[in-house]
Amino acid sequence: MDGKKSILLIDDDSLVLATLLRLLERAGYAVQAFQKTAAAIQASMMEEFDLVITDIRMPEIDGIQAIRYIREVRQKNNWQQAPEIFITGYAQDYEPSARALHPHAFIHKPFDSGEFLEVVRKAFL
Question: What domains can be seen in the chain, in order of their start residue?
Fold first, then answer.
């Protein structure tokens, strides 16, 4: 990439995905966005992202499983682990098992775009 921090973004909600993609690109990040978790995991096999942002509650492969798969890929490739941010509107259902993964941060829906970008910025410090 051209010196920009790279972000892997996963959310099954197309509106949320498009909104976050635009927000992150306007902030100067290089973003690959996926609605399907399996496609995002495939992308993680091809590129070493600087940050992973994923919704937790998704069909087929949820965000917790996605982070586990992506960590395995990074480990097999001897890549440094990247910070991870979970986005959720259902904290009570998933947060305990997500917290066990020790992500960089949780962002609870609904959230403010400034708050979101500040959490992303801090993930790179």
Answer: 6-123 (3.40.50.2300)
Specify the pTM.
0.94
The stretch 90-105 carries a mean pLDDT of 81
The closest of 9, 12, 10 to 59, measured between CA atoms, is 12
Identify whether the C-beta of residue 8 lies closer than 8 Å to the C-beta of residue 39.
no
Tokens linked to 43: 């992308």
Query: For 58-93, what is each residue's pLDDT tens digit?
Result: 999 999 999 999 999 999 999 999 999 999 887 666
Which residue, 122, 117, 62, is CA-closest to 95? 62
| 16 Cβ contact list (under 8 Å, min separation 6) | 55, 87
